[in-house]
Structure formats: structure tokens, C-alpha cells
Amino acid sequence: MTLDLLSIFGLLSSVLIGVSLGLIGGGGSILTVPVLVYLFHIDPVLATAYSLFIVGLSSLVGAFPKYRLGQIDLKTALVFGIPSIIAVFLTRKILVPAIPATLFEIAGVSVTKALAMMILFAMLMVAASVSMIRDQKKEAQATDEPRVFNYPMILLEGSVVGVLTGLVGAGGGFLIIPALVMLSKLPMKQAVGTSLLIIGAKSLIGFTGDVMENYEQMNWTLLLLVTALAIAGIFVGNQLSKKIDGSVLKKGFGWFVLAMGFYIITKELLFPGAANH
């Protein structure tokens, strides 16, 4: 791997992915695909596969200290995680390979699979940013209610998150955490810990759907290096979280993600394919 200026920024950003996971229990995965596509020039479709591995392994490492603190609800992780794992594996193994390289043409402009995935990803970034920026009072109030599992909604949400994870390679913590708080009545800290375990399991299992097809194409040196830096970032983030107000950080990070989402939409629509040249 040649170290140009963009690659150096990419390595620094890899640490930031982990720091955000350690600090606010999510958000890091939403940076992974843009870092891989724009800084390391990885094809967008392959980048979503890389992201599953990076996010999956980083989240599992981040889940260990949460488990030791009693901040993971294993029952909820199973109920939410199983349909999510099945959905993400089938999406990577069957749905993503079945999508044609060119979807359709508008006024002579081809809408490719890579372009569509980046636009969908950017739209999810905007949705994630809104989740991070908005006031969390409603979610905090939900924790005072008695624990009653809304199993049909948990199963449905798990499946939807699994399909989205499979399509864009993001962990979906911004969808999972509010769902666990509102549907499973988990306290926020337990929701964050449980979310990390679910994200880790479903992302790594989803990645296995790609390994079988794309093993030869994968740059394992880059993949393992970015993953190691993200994991190092988690430990930094965990330490910083003890000293910094997480809610303030979450809002600040949310505004950054919002700007990134609009940047990707603008770039991909005005200069499609430019990222890989």
C-alpha cells in the first residue's frame, strides 16, 4: 500500500472510527465506507464488505468491557440479533450479487450499482445524523416503563436493520439503540452495550457472505490495518468517555455526519465514479 496524503488521512480516520464507537457507542460505522471509498479508493460495493469486517470486529471488541460491566442484555441481543443476522447474510450472499452493475439510465446517464449504494448510504448518514442531533428526552423516559418485550416489532426491526446493514455495510447502531430503548425498554447504557454485540455478530456473519465470493479481490493488508487502528481507537474512546459529556459529543458528531451525508450525495450525483480515479 503506497502512503500518499489521502492514505495518511485514511489511517487517521480509521482511528476516529473506533474513537466514536468508544465514545458514543455508535456512529463509527457510518464513517467507514466514505473513508474506504474516498481516501483508500476502494470500489463502493467492495467497501461495504470491508466495512462489515471492520465494524464487526471493532464492535465485538467494544462489547467486551460493556459485558463485564453488566451493560449487555443477552436475551434482547438474541431476539433482535437472530433475524438481523439471517437478513444481513442473505442480503450479502444473494441480494447484493444479484443487483445488476447498471440499474437504469436517465437522460443518457447510467445509474450504476455503486452509485445507488453510495446514495443509499448517504441517505442513511442523514437519517443517522438526525438521530444523533435530536433531543434524547423521549428515549430516556422510555426506560422508566416496565420491561415488556414487543417481540413482533423487535423481529421486524431486526430484519430491516439486517437488510440495510447488508446493503450499505453500516452497523445501524442509530437504528438499533432507539429500538432497544423503546421496544425492549432497556436503559440507555444497556442499549448501547447490547447494540455493540448485535452489530458485531451480524456484521461479521454478513461478511462471510462476501468472503466466499470476493476473497481474491480483497486487500487483506489494508483491511487488517484499518481494523487494528479502529480497535485501538475504541480503547482511546472508552477512556475519553469517562471524562467527556457523551451527549454533547453525540450532537457534534451528528452535525459532522449530516455534512458528510450531503457531501456524498452532491459528489456522487455531480461527479459519479470520480472517487475511484
Task: Give a structural overview.
The chain has 277 residues and is mainly alpha-helical. The protein has one domain (5-276). Helix content is 76%, strand content 3%. The protein has helices at residues 5-24, 29-39, 44-68, 74-98, 113-133, 137-142, 151-168, 173-183, 188-214, 220-241, 246-270; strands spanning 102-106, 109-112. The protein has a two-stranded antiparallel sheet with strand order 1-2. Helix 8 (173-183) crosses helix 9. The longest helix has 27 residues, at 188-214. It starts with a helix and ends in a 7-residue tail after the last helix. Residues 138-143 have low confidence and may be disordered.
Written as H for each helix and E for each strand, in order along the chain, the element string is HHHHEEHHHHHHH
Number of domains: 1
Measure the end-to-end span: 16 Å
The shape, in one word, is globular
Quick take:
This protein is mainly alpha-helical and 277 residues long. It has eleven helices and two strands, in the order H-H-H-H-E-E-H-H-H-H-H-H-H.
Provide tags for this entry.
single chain; 277 residues; mainly alpha; 11 helices
How do the strands and helices of this protein lay out in sequence?
Layout: H1 5-24, H2 29-39, H3 44-68, H4 74-98, E1 102-106, E2 109-112, H5 113-133, H6 137-142, H7 151-168, H8 173-183, H9 188-214, H10 220-241, H11 246-270
Antiparallel strand pairs: 1-2
Helix pairs in contact: 1-2, 1-10, 2-3, 3-7, 3-9, 3-10, 4-7, 4-9, 5-11, 7-8, 8-9
